[in-house]
Specification:
This protein has 62 residues and is an all-alpha fold. It has helices spanning 5-17, 22-46, 53-61. 76% of the residues lie in helices and 0% in strands.
């Protein structure tokens, strides 16, 4: 068909969203979603530089 992988993923997502098993898929993937959410906030916190906090606190309060 000549479509890109992104378009194929979009079509697959839309077709799964309207299928009767959509709630089962969402429930099954919830632990994976939670794992990546924790990983995201952990990596964000690990990159935080505490020494720069004094430089940005005044503009943040204004």
């Amino acid at each position: 068909m000549g479509l890109s992988a992104e378009i194929g993923a979009f079509v697959a997502g839309v077709s799964l969203a309207i299928s009767p098993v959509a709630m089962f898929i969402a429930f099954s993937l919830k632990p994976l979603r939670d794992f990546f959410l924790i990983l995201f906030f952990f990596s964000l916190g690990a990159q935080f530089n505490v020494s720069l906090l004094s430089d940005i606190i005044a503009p943040a309060l204004l």
